[in-house]
Structures are given as structure tokens and as C-alpha cells.
Amino acid sequence: MVARREIARFWSLESLHLVSSDGGTEPSALVDDNGSEEDFSYEDLCQASPRYLQPGGEQLAINELISDGNVVCAEALWDHVTMDDQELGFKAGDVIQVLEASNKDWWWGRSEDKEAWFPASFVRLRVNQEELSENSSSTPSEEQDEEASQSRHRHCENKQQMRTNVIREIMDTERVYIKHLRDICEGYIRQCRKHTAMFTVAQLATIFGNIEDIYKFQRKFLKDLEKQYNKEEPHLSEIGSCFLQHQEGFAIYSEYCNNHPGACLELANLMQQGKYRHFFEACRLLQQMIDIAIDGFLLTPVQKICKYPLQLAELLKYTTQEHSDYSNIKAAYEAMKNVACLINERKRKLESIDKIARWQVSIVGWEGLDILDRSSELIHSGELTKITKQGKSQQRTFFLFDHQLVSCKKDLLRRDMLYYKGRLDMDDMELVDLEDGRDKDCNLSVKNAFKLVSRTTDEVHLFCAKKQEDKARWLQACADERRRVQEDQELGMEISENQKKLAMLNAQKAGHGKSKGYSGCPVAPPHQSLHPIHQRHVTVPTSVPQQQVFGLAEPKRKPSFFWHTFNRLTPFRK
Asked: At what angle do helices 148-182 and 211-228 cross, to 10 degrees?
């Protein structure tokens, strides 16, 4: 309990207050009572939020806590899927115990009894660090029953403090976020517009997207948060209504996230010229911004929208059902989770089109329109036996995308090489499940079979799987394809023609080398690496300099496992 209170105090009180000249404290703020921003210097903001602003500050604080024997936990912002035994895989929302944070980009942690490296930028540190022992169940003894009343009272007070910590973190991170947005608008965009010889209007629209609209929206949102914030008793604050009131406004992030891949490409192209690198660095210094590259600043909105559900989930955890804000916080959590899910789905589609484009380039003898003209994600893939009208069997590898089913044939000698054999329009097909036995239409005995029937021509396409479970997967995949197409139409989820063309252009130019504008981006080999999107969720790094966020770029290479083992075994380590 002592350790937990110390950690909570460390992450909340120390990081969220300004130290006055007389040694007292006062809450930090970036807006006045009217909602307008006050001018804070970099030093003031560092005092207000050293763990969020100062480079390396959070990392140093974590190591201090760990070295003191405290348990430090983090929550995953995104999925991290890996085939590397030295990396820790997890899903969004999973809790990871941080064991070492000496490296800026990769931390050592534990999840489900496995210890391995994981990208530090994929997680958010919990505001309230709880000891693992408290999560374990125990049977109270008679002696403990005597202290039950006192324990409940202490628990109530502790829960109030926990809620205070989360409320303060939400308020503090909002103020810092507004500072970052203001720096982008005033430090970068304003200066870029003055230099018309260097930037066209179209270039600036590509690089910065609608971040100025986000800045205006977040100022209004913060203004309402400040009104609901109880400075004297933060645990009594009722901020849930603010999220519900502005939930439709958060949809503005979808446009920004959709634009971000193009922004990364445009920025990467400009950064190849020294004058642009020097210009952006001069803008940063003139605005007295923290030591983060421009691409890191432009990533903050993507980061922010994914943090809201985690913050609200932790706030809900420490909000009792009797609290006046409970119902609003619960509704706000669901609302922000839906917003984040929608944006993540758009993000995944954008990530998948680059792999799909590279996959198409690897197919020999491709005919017709590009796959991206109608499709944006792979639903399922596998081998099926196609039965022709003449009753002949053809072994084929099929790839089910949204709207299309593509058929390929493997090379007899090089099994990793695929030849294009055709495709079916799934919008025109009706799925029919067949029982084992003789099919009346084809007059053939079939097993593990199903067919696709054209609604316009009544043409029948008969397929047989090797196993019953394989057939079941294909039936489910076909149902998923129809459902996803309908969802995309309802949500208006479309990939721009420019992004599709750019993905194909990069794939054609790159071949098996590096794609244009994707520094350090791993290129997919032939078809084996094109995993269905429901099987492998590619994640977004959040703090690596010059990364291409939606280009599947990974953080910097993780530290050597040898050195980690050596450091753990050395007897002189503090």
C-alpha cells in the first residue's frame, strides 16, 4: 500500500503542479477562465509536466521506480504482433509489467509469464500503479474481519485518490496536447505559409491535413473540461458529459488519420533536401519547441485519439456507481472506444493497401484492373480444388478480398511463385453450402464443398476443401466479406484514388527493394507474407524519428538480447 501511494503521488502530484517561488504549489493551466490560452514558456511547461515534455524524463522516472522495487505497469495502445521470440506480443488494452526501460525505444517487460522486448511507444503508463499482490484473491481470517470496517474506509479514500490521479492526468495531458497543437500551427504552418517559394498550398494541405481544425476543436473541448474540473476536490469532477457532448466532433480525427500516410510521404521527400531539414529545425527552435522532429509532432493527434479510451477505462475503474459522473463516464468510454475503433479500422485499411500492391506485383501474368481499384483488405486465403464444368479438378490458391476472389496457380518447381488465373466478382455471387454426396447441378459426388452462383448469369463455380474445418473457414470468410463491405458502405470508409495509385507506383518501382518514401520499411516477400487482416493487425509506432507511420515501419532495432542478459547477471549492477 505504501509503495502504491508513493507511485501514485509521484505520477500525479509531482508532475502536475507548478512550483512557486515560495515553495508552494499551484495547479498548472494553459487556459484562463475564458478558455483562451496563456503564454507559458518551455521552462514553465517542463516544471508543470516534466514527465511528458522533457526528452528522457519519463524513461528516467521509470528506472528510478523499478530500481526502488516498485511494480510499474503499462497498457498497450495498439496490437503488437511479432514472430520474433525476443519480442513481446500483445493486444491493445493488455497490461505489461515494465522490468527495464534503459533503452529509449525498446523496453523489457513481462506479459503472461513471458519476458521479452517490446516497443516503448506502443504503450501508455498507468497513472495508478497497483501492486500485483492486490490482484490476488485471499480468504479473510477472523482477525482480518475485525479490521474490515477500517479497511473499507481506507479503500474508499484510496479510490478517491486514484480517481484524482486519473482526472489530473487527463487534464494535464490535454493542456500539454494543446501546447503541441499550438506549436504546430504557429511554429510550423505559419512560417511555411510565409515561404511561398518553398511550399505550395497543396503541399501544406498534404503535410498538415486538418490539424488546424483539430486545434480549434480541442480548445473548445479543453474549455469545457476546465469548467467541469473541481480544483479543490478533483475526485468530484464530472467530466463525462464533456466527452459525450463532443463525441461527434472527435470524428474530425478520421480525416487527419486518413491523410497522415500522404503527409509522411510528402515530408520524407522534402527532407531529402538540406534546406527543408534546416528550415523545419529553425522553426522548432524559433518557437522554443521540445526536441522532437516535425514528424513526431504530426503524430500526436494519432496518438491522442487512441489514448482516450484507455484513460476513460482507468477513470471508470476508480469511479463508484454511486458517483454522479459514473453513468456519463461509462457512456463516454463506450463512445470514445467506438471512435478509436473506427479510426483504427481506417488505419488498418491504409496499412494493408501497400502490402496488397506489393503482392499484386509479385503475381506473374496479372490481367485486368489493379486489385486496389475495388479492394482494400485481404479477408482470407488458402488452397481449394476448383471443379470445372467438364468435371476436371484444378488445384488453386485463392485470395478473398473485399469485392473480389482472386485465383492463382503455384509454379511446379518454385512453390513461392504464383500465376494469375482469374477472379470472381463477389458482389455478383451467392454463396451456397453443399452437403457431402452427389451434387445435382454438376452431377458429381463432392465432399467439403460449396459453390458460388452468379446472380446475373446463373454460372456455377464449385469448390472443394481438403477438410471440413477448411470449408467452415471459407464459409465464414465469405460471410465476413459481405459484412465488411456493408460496414464500409455504412461508414463511408473509402481509400482515395491518389493513395491507391501511390501504393501501386511504389510497389512497381520498388520490386523487392525499399518502397519510395518508406525509410526502413520492411518489404513483403511473395504471397506467404500477405496475411489476412483479421489474422495480423499491423501496429503504429509512435515516437521513432522520421518514421512512416502507416508504412508499417518498426521502431529502431531492439537492443541485443546478449547485453540484456549480461546486465541482469552482473553482480555489480545497482
From this structure: 150
How far apart, in Å, are the Cα atoms of 36 and each of 197, 209, 468, 502?
A: 33, 24, 64, 41
Q: What angle do CA 102, 107, 110 make, to 5 degrees?
A: 125
Strand partners, 76: 123
- Return the amino acid letter for 496: S
Strand order, beta sheet including 449-454: 418-425, 404-410, 393-401, 378-387, 460-464, 449-454, 429-433
Task: Provide the 8-state DSSP code for 187.
Answer: I
pLDDT in tens, 363-385: 999 999 999 999 988 999 999 99
Cell match 525505444: residue? 105
448-488 confidence digits (pLDDT tens):
999 999 999 989 999 999 999 999 999 999 999 999 899 88
Closest of 399, 397, 407, 462 to residue 429, by C-alpha = 462
φ and ψ at residue 97, rounded to 5 degrees: -85, 120
The domains located in the chain, with CATH, are 52-125 (2.30.30.40), 156-352 (1.20.900.10), 377-492 (2.30.29.30)
Residue 111 contacts residue 95 (beta carbons within 8 Å): yes
Are 474 and 448 a contacting pair, CB within 8 Å?
no
- CB of 270 closer than 8 Å to CB of 298: no
**Beta-carbon count within 10 A of 2 CB:** 7
Is the whole model's pTM more than 0.85, yes or no? no
- Say how many residues make up the chain: 574
Q: Checking phi first, is residue 156 left (phi over 0); if not, alpha (psi -120 to 50) or beta?
A: alpha
Residue partners of 30: CB distance under 8 A and separation at least 6: 37, 38, 40, 175, 176, 178, 179, 222
Residue with cell 477448411: 470
For 130, the grid coordinates are: 497497483
pLDDT given for residue 359 in this prediction: 92
Three cell numbers written together for 559: 537492443
Could you tell me which of 253, 226, 228, 232 has the C-alpha nearest to residue 241? 228
Per the prediction, the chain carries an average pLDDT of 76
Percent of the chain with pLDDT over 70: 72
Distances (CA, A) of 278 to 183, 201, 265, 283, 293: 17, 20, 18, 9, 11
Q: Identify the DSSP state of 376.
A: -
